[in-house]
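Curious: why these numbers?
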Amino acid sequence: MTAGTLPEIIVRADNVHTMNPAAGNDSENDACERVSAIAVAGGLITAMGTRSEIEDLATSATEIIDVPGTIVPGFTDAHAHPIMSLSMTRGADLSFCRDQDQVAEALREEAAGRDPDEWVLGWGLDPNVFADEAITNALVHRVLGAEKKTFLSLFDAHSAIASGAALAEAGIAEARSYPGNSSVVVDESGSPTGHLLEFGAMEEIRSVIPALSFNEQVDALNDLLKAMAAQGIAAMHVMDMNDPDTFELLAAAEVRGPLPVKLRLSPWCAPTTTDAELAKLIESQGEGGDRWHIGGAKLFIDGTVEGGTAWLETPDSKGESTTSAWGATEDYAARVRELNAAGVPTATHAIGERGIREVVETLAALPDTGVQHRIEHIESVPKDIINQLGAAGIAASMQPTHCTHYTAADGSDDWSQRLGEVRAARAWCTRDVIDAGGVLALGSDYPVAPFAALPIMADAQLRRPVEDAGVAPVLPEQGLSPAEVLAGYTTEPYAAIGEEAGYLAVGGPATFTVLDVDPLAVDPEELGQGRVLLTVSDGVITHRQD
């Protein structure tokens, strides 16, 4: 225990896991096991010790909070899109639909009572509902009619379905292609099928959909961040900073009070990014508000397996996923070198094994400037590339529920069918990353998958959905230990950006979460059902269970 400034808040619990590397393994360290209370002042931890030791520091002005549970560092989601989600998650949530009948029912409910000219929107659509069918707007037309303006985002957020009326509203009547492997898919006659691949094509439709008002966006962002804090999330790596209104949006949100989740936002560096835009991105590093700032840059080497826009060594089962989003990959490498020289950390989306190899080799060849670079997703990759990643000190940022929610152990899902047996057997190799000595940060990629941290941590151990014990695990040998998943949501997201943080120590940030379960002691099923009792971020109570 260290006594210093008189505490504003004292939190007393059953035990504390600090995740402090200087303290060793909390679950085995007797000194750490004695810690069951934390004192907070000025946004910092001023003391840690037993309940009685810390209670003795209290004054009449100290708020004492008793919570029967385990204190851990506040969770950091290493990859999410809360800003983009404000427009992406409008309308019907289709993520729970497992077949076309359920999709049809959800669309009818969403359309009920709407004026004929109103848009019908939906999001989170799993391509597996189409089974062996081509993804087109035929289902939408059967349910709502071709004349109804309808736009449905698929779960991967890299593809969508637009009705005939929606295409007409955007003036799309033929094949179109855009930078970054984006396109309007057409049939044999050259007519658009309604399937849109990647951001350029999707933006054509989104640009004609009536937008939320500014105040509605501020309200939605605040509500979302509160919901995230209620899941124990104290900080987040935001993989989008593209809308010029984002600065104004975040500033307006902070006028209402401290953001419930601390945000680090990474603007995109795309194939179309000009030299002037890159210079502005570099100059913007560190800009922000009280609880948000710009940090790093986000790049894409490829798209998604399900959309046929990943970059594979050999084509998928449909003859797709054969090229980089950058066309000339030297252009990608040149941008990464510029960012590295300027001290800007990069995060590159890489899903197919050819794309991952290209990114690993590019990052491994960079001169050492002390900048930590990372790769996002890493869905299917041979072990030799993972070993190279670990040896080069490149961080991996992965999303366990992409595996557990959208693939199946028997290979019957769309992702596995496209890749084939050999590549599907390399799915989300989280264990291999750690065994190779790599940094492994975990996250949700919300809204691609739910943001609740405890179920994600449970899935990462089980390699199946925690809520469904009847589902066979996908490559169970790639499962993680309780300590590894807790690190993946605490210390490792900071290691992935070159910082030593995400643990509890006197003098450090008062950022912690209190759970009704001990994540290092309970089985994954119990962890997945756990409740968040309290979330504190930089001394600010952002969630307290009633």
Observations:
- DSSP finds 21 helices and 25 strands in the chain.
